[in-house]
Design a protein that fits this description.
It contains 12 helices and 17 strands. The protein has about 400 residues and is of the alpha+beta class. The radius of gyration is 20 Å and the shape is globular.
């Protein structure tokens, strides 16, 4: 994206590389699209939109149209590694979650708003049968829904299923999407463990290999289970910091990042209802930062924050994912220069002050490039009436 957008019938096109074959259902797609959006000098490559960029560009990309998922692998960190999955992705995200559960040797702990994937539920049962300790912290309001029966099956199989009631307000929830495997790996992102989330919505799933992160999330799961919250004690070593609602005021974390932006702020968030964050986006736009926002149309109907952004000159796309009756543009991420903020956190009052939520802040240009590419895919799908430049105007 450049500084300017204009109405047009289509985005610019480029010659795409040959698609990478899918690894197939049930396989662990290691190595798939390892080169997606790689490189250190990322700023010239703005919205890649899953198109191959000429060789002279600082970034490379692969066509994701016909393969089993978009995966970015980050393995240059000390004592940590990260795989990123974007959905829709042909089932690669569920494949990876199932593979993680199948690989567990000692313990699996999960904190999830909702679980409806029979495949993942049965994988948890299989893990319990081979001696792995399995604990699931489940939002009690979701468990009580008539359509949710998987919790009964898991309980009958001997798993520790704990309904957690967040009593901060009438509609407050346990909204996290967290899992820990063997105290070594952490999964988080916007996706619940269900069919719509893992196949049809616009979502992200991040899989970290980090003992230090796992310890932080493990302590947080204790707080969720007991509904006793403790403010974060300090930073982790390395490029990833973890924050949790309501104790860490996630709106302040996001606002501070936006207020520090020098070059770009790309936002894809399911629900945008916080005036202070909209104000921060408008301020960034006013000082020349490239700001682009995508939000879910079903959510934006009940908010005027998108209208305030447009009135200030910020390009906004209201995305309508019409794949199914309940599908959504469910992302919850922001790219701020070379930093990504991503997790379960919507930009709302309830998410900030009432719900149990999580937010990872990742300072890494490679991760930022991956999410900038995903923003491009979202923009291309839902905002194709706009023509956006890939280079900054000179």
């Amino acid at each position: 994206m450049g500084l300017d957008t204009a109405d047009a019938t289509a985005l610019p096109t480029a010659t795409a590389r040959a698609p990478v074959p899918s690894q197939g259902r049930g396989a662990w797609p290691t190595g798939v699209a390892r080169g997606l959006l790689m490189g250190s000098a990322m700023r010239p490559c703005l919205f890649l939109v899953a198109l191959a960029i000429p060789a002279a560009s600082a970034c490379t990309a692969v066509d994701i149209a016909d393969r089993g998922g978009a995966v970015e692998t980050i393995d240059g960190w000390d004592d940590a590694a990260l795989d990123i999955y974007f959905i829709p992705g042909g089932g690669a995200a569920e494949d990876r979650l199932a593979a993680e559960v199948a690989a567990a040797r000692r313990e699996i702990r999960v904190a999830m708003y909702n679980i409806t994937s029979a495949r993942l539920g049965h994988a948890l049962i299989d893990a319990r049968r081979r001696g792995v300790a399995v604990e699931v912290l489940w939002d009690a309001k979701q468990m009580a829904q008539d359509y949710n029966t998987l919790d009964d099956e898991l309980t009958a199989a001997g798993l520790v299923i704990t309904p957690v009631t967040n009593r901060a307000a009438a509609f407050s929830t346990v909204h996290d999407k967290l899992a820990i495997i063997d105290g070594e790996r952490v999964t988080l992102g916007s996706a619940n463990w269900g069919t719509s989330a893992l196949y049809d919505n616009n979502e992200s799933l991040l899989v970290f290999e980090s003992v230090a992160m796992a310890a932080v999330v493990d302590a947080q799961l204790d707080e969720i289970r007991d509904q006793v919250k403790v403010r974060r004690a300090g930073d982790l070593a390395g490029p990833v910091q973890l924050h949790f609602s309501p104790e860490d005021r996630l709106d302040r974390v996001v606002q501070a990042a936006i207020d520090s932006a020098h070059d770009r702020v790309y936002v894809a968030v399911f629900s945008l209802r916080l005036r202070n964050l909209t104000d921060a986006l408008i301020r960034a736009h006013g000082r020349g930062v490239r700001v682009f926002v995508a939000t879910d149309r079903k959510q934006s109907i009940g908010s005027n924050e998108d209208e305030r952004l447009r009135a200030a000159g910020v390009p906004v796309v209201e995305a309508l994912n019409a794949t199914g009756a309940f599908t959504a543009m469910h992302h919850k991420f922001a790219v701020v220069d070379d930093t990504v903020l991503v997790g379960a956190y919507n930009w709302t009052y309830a998410a900030t002050f009432q719900n149990d939520e999580d937010l990872a802040v990742i300072r890494d240009p490679e991760v930022a490039a991956a999410f900038a590419g995903e923003m491009g895919r979202v923009w291309r799908r839902y905002g194709a009436h706009r023509r956006c430049r890939f280079q900054r105007s000179s």
